[in-house]
Structure formats: structure tokens, C-alpha cells
Amino acid sequence: MKQIDVCLTPDLLHLHTIDNTIVVVADVFRATSCMVTAFAYGVGSIIPVATVDECRALQQRGYLAAAERNAQTVEGFDLDNSPFSYMDERLEGTDIAMTTTNGTLAITRSRSAVKVLVGSFLNLDAIARYLRTQTYDVMVLCAGWKGRVNLEDTLFAGALAHRLRDDYAMHEDSVLLAHRLYCDGKDNLVSYLANASHLRRLQRLGIQKDIAYCLQHDLYDVVPVLRGGSLVKMEV
């Protein structure tokens, strides 16, 4: 039987073998939620890069550019890290360069996988339906926060494991932990996350609407996939 595993932070990725695995990267607050929203609203592609300098270089080549560090927009860039910024018809068909504190770094570290997908609660059902058709094992890579584990990405991993529980075996403690956490909190994720460290960071910035939005399930039938150096919307 196929297996699903969870890597709780990119700093633990070296302990996993992903060469024969589909990796689903999750940075719920807010990078992967932004990416899913952007594709749902017609963005052509997103180039995820690890550093601000790489993103600035692409901006200078004519790309629209989004840069976030410590949950705030880096000065001089075109877009921020709020999913609401990507609900703009003027972005339809555009190519965007993006760097974030955690999410884009996790994506760039996953390139040796069979496929790299972008996951969030917003496209949870679309991701699960696609994975049921695949023959490979799956690993959810939680972007975390600067190498540390965070609760929201772990809950997403548990949610995906829950959706796939009849198709994928859960053997490792990390996926069992994530699944149990999700089952405990799934009836009210906002309340369950009330004391989560990154949620508190975002609340201090006054962006509660982003938090509520990113925790909605199954809004979009979108599966972003990494092809070459760019994320594109997969036809599923």
C-alpha cells in the first residue's frame, strides 16, 4: 500500500528520501494559500525563489515580484503575502516571481522529488483527489517557521492524511501526530490555533481576515505543480 509521511520542518528534510515521492509543500499562513489563490484567479506562473536577491533580479528582468520576510512585505516589491492581493483581474496571465520566509524555501529544497505540489486548506480536496490517482508515496513538507515546527502546517498535513486514510498507509509517528491533531481540532480550526505562534504574529499585524480565509476548506479546484523552475496550474 502507498504511504503518506510528514516532514514537520524543512530542517528535517535531510532525514527523508524523496526521490521516489510526491512532495506536497504547505505554508498555510500564507505563501501556499497565496499561490493557490493566484492560480484560481488566472495567474500564468509563479517562480518560487529562496532569497530576496533572486527575486529582485527577476523583478529587474520584468517579472512582477512578491517578497515577504517576517510576515511583512519587503520594500520595493510589487506584491505582498496576502491572498487577497492575488484576487486581481490585472494579474491574469502574468508571471510572478515570489520569495517568502518559509514557503518558497521549502519548495526549492524539494526539487529532487518526483513531483512538487503546492497544498493549502483552500485546495485540499483537489490535492487529495489527484493523489488518489498516483502510484507514488506522498510526503507533506510543512514549511514551518524559520526551521521550527508550526501548528497550522502540521494541521494541514493531518487534514490531507485524513482525506487519504483509505488509500495511503500512515506508519511514521509524524503523520500519526499530524492526523491526531487535525482530528482533535477540525471542528473549529480558528479556535484550535488561537495560541499558535504564527497566528499571533499575523494578528499583531492586523490581518485577521487572512487567517480566516486561509483556514477555509476546498474553495478551489486547483493543483499547482513545479515544472522546471516555475509553478504552473496542473490540468486535473
How do the helices and strands line up, and which of them pair or pack?
Elements: E1 4-7, E2 21-26, H1 31-40, E3 45-48, H2 52-60, E4 64-69, E5 72-73, E6 95-99, H3 103-108, E7 115-119, H4 124-132, E8 137-142, H5 151-163, H6 173-185, H7 189-192, H8 197-204, H9 208-214, E9 224-227, E10 230-233
Parallel strand pairs: 1-8, 2-7, 2-8, 3-6, 4-6
Antiparallel strand pairs: 4-5, 9-10
Largest sheet: 4 strands, parallel
| Integer average pLDDT | 94
Number of strands: 10
- Helix share bin: 25-40%
Category from helices, strands and their pairing: alpha/beta
Any idea what the CATH superfamily is called? ComB-like
CATH class (first level) name: Alpha Beta
Global Rg:
16 Å
Summed up, the domain count is 1
Percent of residues in β-strands: 15-25%
CATH 2nd-level architecture:
Alpha-Beta Complex
- The count of helical stretches stands at 9
The strands making up the biggest β-sheet line up spatially as: 1-8-2-7
Low-pLDDT runs of 5+ residues are none
CATH topology: putative 2-phosphosulfolactate phosphatase
Please give the alpha-carbon distance between the first and last residues: 23 Å
Sketch the topology as an H/E string, one letter per element: EEHEHEEEHEHEHHHHHEE
Protein name: Probable 2-phosphosulfolactate phosphatase
EC number: 3.1.3.71
Catalytic activity: (2R)-O-phospho-3-sulfolactate + H2O = (2R)-3-sulfolactate + phosphate
Enzyme class: hydrolase
Structural features, described:
The protein has a single domain (4-226), classed as ComB-like (putative 2-phosphosulfolactate phosphatase), CATH 3.90.1560. It has 9 helices and 10 strands. It has helices at residues 31-40, 52-60, 103-108, 124-132, 151-163, 173-185, 189-192, 197-204, 208-214, and strands spanning 4-7, 21-26, 45-48, 64-69, 72-73, 95-99, 115-119, 137-142, 224-227, 230-233. A 4-stranded parallel beta sheet has the order 1-8-2-7. Helix 4 crosses helix 5 (151-163) and helix 5 packs across helix 6. The longest helix has 13 residues, at 151-163. It is globular, with a radius of gyration of 16 Å.
